[in-house]
């Protein structure tokens, strides 16, 4: 009989990371190795190099996430995919896809086994603002933690989907080979 703490007997153990990609900041969250609960990690300043998804030197923001994945022996990095409420994709979606591609390439180049997967993040920032407001945090003080709170929501949603389906959530990002 499986141990009651073994949340996904069909999935290998390993922490999961959640990433909320913004224009100025990136929220980062992590789970325990069994994928039970998401917790905030940090807010990483975004590096906009104007290069899009083209391969090149690893930027400091991507390098920080790769280091966190290595430190935690992460199995998966879930990147939020911001779609419109209708499900349509826009500029922010393209930006998140490009970032996820760069992250997947950087993880592979570093010899990390973590998959990068895109998961729907509609309404996560709104939900994060509401949760912070409900906890008594004033609106002006949200900026320092809103991205982390959104990353926690992205990750917890993916963890819940893993438990419900018995498989990884979201869309796998393939590493583009030159």
TrEMBL record:
The compartments listed are: Cytoplasm
- Start and end of every YqgF/RNase H-like domain? 14-128
Which InterPro entries would you find in this protein's record? RNaseH-like_sf, YqgF, YqgF/RNaseH-like_dom, YqgF/RNaseH-like_dom_sf
Assigned GO CC terms:
cytosol
Keywords of this entry: Cytoplasm, Hydrolase, Nuclease, Ribosome biogenesis
Q: What single Pfam family name could you report for this chain, choosing any that match?
A: RuvX
GO molecular function per UniProt: hydrolase activity, acting on ester bonds; nuclease activity
Q: Which domain of life is it from?
A: Bacteria
The UniProt record lists the EC number as: 3.1.-.-
Q: Does the keyword Oxidoreductase apply?
A: no
What Gene Ontology terms for biological process does this UniProt record contain?
rRNA 5'-end processing
Which SMART domains would you find in this protein's record? YqgFc (SM00732)
Q: Top-level EC class, please?
A: hydrolase
HAMAP family of this UniProt entry? Nuclease_YqgF (MF_00651)
The record's function comment reads: Could be a nuclease involved in processing of the 5'-end of pre-16S rRNA.
Q: Which family does it belong to?
A: Belongs to the YqgF HJR family.
What is the protein's name according to its record?
Putative pre-16S rRNA nuclease
The scientific name of the source species is: Antribacter soli
State the gene name recorded for this protein. ruvX
């Amino acid at each position: 009989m499986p141990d009651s703490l073994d949340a996904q007997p069909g999935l290998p153990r390993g922490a999961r990371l959640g990433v909320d990609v913004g224009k100025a900041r990136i929220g980062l969250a992590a789970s325990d190795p069994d994928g039970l609960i998401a917790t905030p990690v940090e807010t990483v300043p975004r590096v906009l190099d104007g290069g899009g998804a083209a391969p090149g030197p690893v930027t400091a923001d991507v390098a920080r996430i790769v280091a966190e994945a290595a430190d935690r022996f992460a199995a998966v990095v879930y990147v939020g995919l911001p779609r419109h409420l209708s499900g349509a994709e826009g500029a922010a979606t393209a930006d998140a896809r490009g970032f996820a591609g760069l992250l997947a390439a950087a993880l592979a180049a570093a010899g990390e086994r973590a998959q990068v997967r895109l998961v729907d993040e509609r309404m996560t920032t709104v939900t994060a603002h509401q949760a912070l407001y409900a906890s008594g945090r004033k609106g002006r003080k949200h900026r320092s933690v809103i991205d982390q709170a959104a990353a926690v929501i992205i990750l917890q949603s993916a963890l819940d989907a893993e438990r419900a389906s018995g498989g990884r959530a979201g869309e796998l990002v393939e590493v583009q080979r030159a």
